[in-house]
Amino acid sequence: MTDPGGGVTVADTVRWLHDEGLVRLAGVAGRRSGPVAAYTIDVSTGAVSVHPATGAGVGSDVETIDADDLPYPAGSASRLLIVGITTSQAVLVLNLAATLAFSINADRPETVARAWVTQLLLNEEITLTTNSAAVAIAASPRCRHSFIPGGGATMINVDDKQPPITTISFNSATDGPDQLDVAVDGTAELYLGTRFWQLAQIMTIDDAAWGGLLAQFDERHSEGTR
Fold first, then answer.
1. Concatenated DSSP letters for 128-175?
2. Torsion angle of alpha carbons 36, 42, 86, 72, nearest 10°?
3. Chain-centre distance of CA 60, in angstroms?
4. Element (DSSP H or E) covering residue 210
């Protein structure tokens, strides 16, 4: 991720989100009557914008909250994950619990999916099932490589025991309302119903970094079985 310069950086914001911010954002959804599709956190000011899943009409207005006024961190981060940084220098957090089907459209969607998988696995309540060998983690019982009935599409099912399950597809042939379109230069466009964000950079994990992570998983698994 790039540093926008001065004061708090993108790295600082991402670190805060994984330390406690995602859990505090999940608490915001618990106070609302309708589902939240996404959050954006302005890197320079810390202001949090809450984007309801409803795209129009009553309850669709975006709410802005100061980070210090977010709920106390309690519970889990649910299916929240960091997608990347927008062109307006805000970190975009996606709530997968607000969508049944999401598509990652890219030349190599697995590099994006790996970044999502590693984040989702931080929530011990989440189990992932995928038919992609490029994303599965053999040493993790919570990220299994398995046959998924229902077609030949490459996908990941995300289950946190709070139905319904979210399905993430790679380059889906179905043009659904919720999708991430990644350009060759690493920029992207995220669509959630009628909502849209332009991303200057997204989080990915390439083959070399993924190989290192798999080795760490294997080592921890070996230590745990001794």
1. EEES-TTT--TT-TTEEE---SSSS--EEEEE-SSSSPEEEEES-SS-
2. -40
3. 21
4. helix 207-224
